[in-house]
Amino acid sequence: MTNAAVSDVPMVHADRVSKSFGSNEVLKSISLTVTQGEVMCLVGPSGSGKSTFLRCINHLERVDAGRLSVDGVLVGYEERGDKLYELKPREAARQRRDIGMVFQRFNLFPHMTALENIIEAPIRVNKLKKDAAIAHGRELLARVGLADKADAYPAHLSGGQQQRVAIARALAMEPKLMLFDEPTSALDPELVGEVLDVMKGLAESGMTMIVVTHEMGFAKEVADQLVFMDGGVVVESGDPDEVLGNPQHQRTRAFLSKVL
Amino acid sequence: MSDSGRSATPASVSPDGADQAEAIRAIRLRHPWRNVVAVILVAMLALFIVDASQREAYGWENFGKFVFDRRISQAAGYTLLLTVYSMIIAIILGVTLAVMRLSDNPVVKGIAWLYLWVFRGTPVYVQLVFWGLFATIYSTIDLGIPFTEPWLSIDTNDLISVFWLAVVGLALNESAYMAEIVRAGILSVDKGQDEAATALGMSWLQTMTRVVIPQAMRIIIPPTGNEVISMLKTTSLVTAIPFSLELYGRSRDISVVIFDPIPLLLVASAWYLLFTSILMVGQYFLEKRFSRGVGQARPEKPGTETGAVTLKTGVVPTPGAASDAGTATDPAAGTGTTTDPTGKEHQ
Hints:
By secondary structure, chain A is of the alpha/beta class.
């Protein structure tokens, strides 16, 4: 699917996207583009709307204004004539299949083993045969360095191991886009590296990724595009070396001086 | 430890153990009053038992005669049937009501709330009397378009027996309580679980049946066990319908014939105790089964079975486990009493 689609259609295209929770405007006219195979890092203080933007991309949150599309397809709505129609749950679920998401708190299913976590959606959603799903699942576990943990329950894995299983679980659906919502923020410092390594490998394999993170080192090394958000707007974006090395905005400078 | 205060492992320094400090042999602290109270309690209990075994009114002869009476064991069967049937219906209805209460549709939500309000707000005995009068209130059940001549009209007494009226009466009351238990269970599951499943493209039904409900079971099972035990005892109220083939009704009928009520009360009590004891054992194993994978068994009283406790060490708290504490705050569901097998009475 991905091979055929290598074209000038951006993987994610946000055009003046806004989102409010009640009277609290969380996203104010965000415009961003992520091309195929690109890694974008979203940084900024908490409450700046990074996570909300990420959640809008796979329609866990509804966009209030503007247009957000993934691989050329509008997210959460269908445009017919000049009217927008809300998608049925089934259609929204179909869109989400192609988008993998990794959460800050891992959100592994605690009543399933690592392998069961990984094969659940391929079997239930993609109707994959069980042995095919298991074979693929073991492959993915090996890829994240946890081949020997297939039968372990999440509670018996360290935070870093849990997050790597979560990444494998998202990859099992063979997504064309991966979203990472602060994947290392809930980890002990010594466990951050193993998760970042897996993500680096993923980026090198050509996966399109959007990563909300506070790991500036990772952003600098892996990201093709760095976006600094604050107060629901994109303050600054561009090449990570540029943004980190020579921030143009006062707010960016103030933020970076605290985290670097 | 005498040679070096810095030694990290003094035991390894002297393998013969000569360096180890002497075990403490202190005079144990006495608790004289504790012993006095214990002796008094045991004495009172012994006195009661000896007295009861000789007391005429208990009629132990009749107790022995009727405790294995065929009529009584049949009645015990009816009690079990009433319990099982009404619990099955109550659980199905309870899950439905719980999902309705969690619905986004205000009408669906409101109707579920109204149901709970009525069935939890009136005594089950009164409800059962109402069910007994069902055929009086609705003498026929009509099928057809309202306010026109019905296509089909069935006599209510032909349609539903007294036994099934009892089952329905008990089940509808119980389903209101089950709904709150199930709702508390569903709410106890971390929201991230729902999100993770949704993000994987799973449908609402798949998310509920594969992810949410299995985790909610850990919260739902213990109070449901309490409800089964409670239901077993509540069946004695179906005499209000009146249905009297179950344990209590049958015992009373026999006692009226032999003019000796007390031994038959004891007979019924013995059977109830037998059943509740079996259920309590079953509940223990069910709870163990559903805490699988969580790595954190529910807190056990010190001194009891400790097999599950060893799992607690070195466990990373999962979102699901972390939210456990939150469920006890729902006062309606009574989930706070999960380890108390006596449960609540709602009669």
